[in-house]
Amino acid sequence: MAVHWLNPLFRIGYKRSLEQEDLYNVLPEFRSKTLGLTLQSYWDEECLKSAKELKKPSFCKAVIRCYWKSYSLLGIFTFIEEATMIVQPVLLGYLLRYFETYDPNDYHGLELACYYALGMSLSLLLLAVMHHILFFNIQKAGMKIRVAMCNMIFRKALCLSNSARGKTTTGQIVNLLSNDVSKFDDLTMFLHYLWVGPIQVAVVVALLWGEIGPSCLVGIALLIFLMPLQTQFGRMFSVYRSRTAVLTDHRIRTMNEVVTGMRIIKMYAWEKPFAALVSEYRTEEIVNLMKSSMLRAANMATYFSASKIIVLFTFAVYVMLGNTITASRVFVTVSLYGAIRLTVTHFFPSALEKLFESLVSIERIQTFLNLEELPKNTNVFCQPKDASHILKSCQGSSATIPTETAVLPPFPQSSLLSAILGELPLDKGVVKVKGQLTYACQQPWVFPGTIRDNILFGKELDPAKYEKVLRACALKRDMELLPDGDLTLIGDRGATLSGGQKARVNLARAVYQDADIYLLDDPLSAVDGEVGRHLFEKCICGILKDKPRILVTHQLQYLKVADQILVLKEVCRPLLPCPITEQSTRHFCSCMGHYLSRCTSNSVINSSLKAEHTQTAVEEGRSQGTISTDMYYKYLRAGANIFGLVVLFVVNIVAQVTHAFCIPSLEVNAKHVFSGLTAATVLFGLVRAMLFFYVLVKSTETLHKRMFDTILRAPVHFFDVNPIGRVLNRFSKDIGQMDVLLPITFVDACQVLLLTIGVIVVSAMVVPWILILVVPLLIIFLFLRRYFLQTSRDIKRLEGTTRSPVFSHLSSSLHGLWTIRAFRAEQRFQNVFDAHQDLHSDLGAGDVGLALSYAITLMGMFQWGVRQSAEVENLMTSVERVMEYTELESEAPWETEKRPPLDWPSQGLVTFDGVNFSYSADGPVVLRNMNAAFLPREKVGVVGRTGAGKSSLVSALFRLAEPQGKIYVDGILTSELGLHDLRQKMSIIPQDPVLFTDTMRKNLDPFNQHSDEELWNSLQEVHLKSVVEELPAKMETLLAESGSNFSVGQRQLVCLARAILRKNRILIIDEATAHVDPRTDELIQRTIREKFRDCTVLTIAHRLNTIIDSDRIMVLDAGEIQAYDAPYTLLQDPEGIFYKMVQQTGQQEAEDLLASAKQVSAAGPH
Length: 1166
Description:
By secondary structure, the protein is α/β, with parallel strands linked by helices. Helix content is 61%, strand content 8%. Belongs to the ABC transporter superfamily. ABCC family. CFTR transporter (TC 3.A.1.202) subfamily.
């Protein structure tokens, strides 16, 4: 009756699969924002109090103060429930004594017996109703704590300072949100038994003394002995939990980096070292899981056999004292022990176990919450007519920037913007900002959602303004060609967009905001010259012409129109910018005046910019129908072979038979048989539990390995259309449930099933007529279970898919944290997180609410059997989701029977023969009928407008998807080779540089193939040696997540150092110098010419001066080769596409490029 409101949902779920729209909205008091702010207020109060008392704040105290009142009320009902359980054996004893002294003429005794029977029935009914309502409310209490903590963790993540972000990782935060907070769901279930249990034991001792006298002390002594033993177990659980949590952090952090950098990992053929790294973490994790599982097995074996041991010793002493065993004494004693057995052997130790585990989680969450936050911005924002900002440097000089300012390198230009945004702490001086800032970051950031969402970024849609921004940012044509226009969903971190599209969406977001000051961090580096000119003239100098703009750029041709130029010099301390004004002007003029004098803004903009192909993100699928028997079989087979499973089955049956016949043997005074059966019960109970847990933990280990291996072999397209959170969800929450919850629930469900069968068999042997009641009850039980599971299973599956957006949103938000804070959008992103939480919480509460609402008509073991069997099926949805990722489409084998010669490729001849290329079987063709040869030692530049197919050419060469047609390298058909044999023989400096959370040494040489001297020499070649030498541990310094303690340009230089170390005959440079200044670019090009003199080099670039000295230049457009010849030859055709691209750089720059091409032509091939 208490949960009748779920009936409509059950009816829908029974008829068809549930959808999100079928579910009820979460109640206001359970909303993520409400719960989070409440707990946050108690935490803030605790922090203030601790600061006054000069001590460390305790998050545990804040949680207790927030929830103790409501949770204490549930303790009272727990006490009433346990008291009712003790009343039952007392009434049973009185009833049995009536039958032992049965007198047909004793009507008063008959009347009392009827009252006793009525009392037993009412107590059973009270227990049935109270237990599940109480269970539901306790689960709600745990859910409220979990949701509140998730809200606080995300809120804290949005406030972390840059130094604090170096102390945590995305993987650790995901682990906090998925596994640590879930401990409180379990803790709330058992915590009250820490005080209810001892009281219950004391009452039972008194009753047993009255029933069997001093003999009861033996049984009580055994029970009391179990308590400190369980306490020790709890401490050991805490130790293993702490170790496991740290290892899980490392594993999920590594998984996050693997999924994020999968394209790079595949092109470097680094799958094996990353597989070894994850395997190392997972192996240590499994060792600790196995130890804690063996403890759980001992716990369960104790619960299974403790009552039999206690009864054996109790009645052995009882008989030795000269007493006679009677039925009433046996059953009353057994029932009283049974009333506290669950509390002492299961609930009390579980409370200790969960308490110690939760204390570890609280400590981890507290450590995270105590991380340093970004200082509250003390700048005063207003809307004056003359918006400007003033920077006072550490030397006391200042600069006021009222209109358009261009900032030039060498390195600290992004740090200047960071200081203005308040992201970089100032050692001295102040930054005063008047007006509202907006910011376009250097590495374009987009979040999962529609393109329109990314541009509007929370602002209201103004159609006229929106249209104007799309045109200014050269996005109009792209929107027209997309399947759903600007409502097209894009993947995590914009994986479905090209680099140029992400850069333009990133810029459009900043432009659409009606701000006073625009900070633009190198927005033109990821687009080609034509699009760059369009963005500069139509957007930066067009739609924003009346706004102050700070443009960081490496493209000197645009400096002519700047109102001021701020040149930054490197300073003695890394990443601390020191802006120079008058001095820098003289320095700049002396260094670059000759170049600047030739820059001009005279050019013609092509009004019909071509659009790019965009992939679209796919929605997460979910299974339908029941969990198949085959799924259970696959799960168990992952942990043991057929023989192992047969042994497990036999041990289960033997353990149950010995358990079932213990008490009947005592009743017939077969004391020796009872002793033997008790010993067998203990032995087989322990063996069964340990064997069961071993098999299930091995199953989890095997399935994780299969899933990870499958992920590593999945094609790149899979990662382009599936958000990071979706993959991490499997490796964090689903694997977490399979590691901990599923084994103990699975074992318990099997144990309850066998106990139920044993009770029915033994009862039927004594009173066959009982089957008349049992069979209908069993039929009702099976029907209710099926009726319940139709809905429960769908909700669990929906819960799994709604978890993914939580992790995706977290990962995306951390990646774009500077942008979010620059736009003052923290609260909006918090609201989005809360919305994801509310949907997920709604599902969690529903799962608990319908948790046993239809089982309350069943009694005792049937009730628990319904719950546990249903919970197993619910948890098996995690196995189902993991299994789904073990059966993904795989790319070609890493090695094949055909192995290339050891010195292959010795020449570096690359031939494309009729190549067509698409990223997926049903995707559009992005390279068409490509026929070209790259000759040995030839330096080839590849150019084209954004989206022309330049990066797709690289993807085809590395076989990131299988091309149609033939590609030969030194005469060997690449499609016949293993992917590792192919990819290891080519070097690439990628468009998006990726560093991993490891040492600099491991980032350069993950296979340990090179000496220290070679590593330092490679860093010297790319001008990073001095930077690395200043690191605390030099080459052994652990880099921050994604290498965030290096600039984008420095990360690109690390990738160049990797290429130098590999010494391959073929080198591909994909926009590698887009984020470095011209001087560094020149140094890199000189290094490439010297170190790769004997190599075939393909250089993809937007800067034409980078590739103008190539032997030949390939011009791509719409996936087709438009021109392929020497640069000077191409420039002789005024109608040619390359000639037009050169002219768009400006008149004087075009003359320089022509002169360089002519010089190269006269010098002959390299």
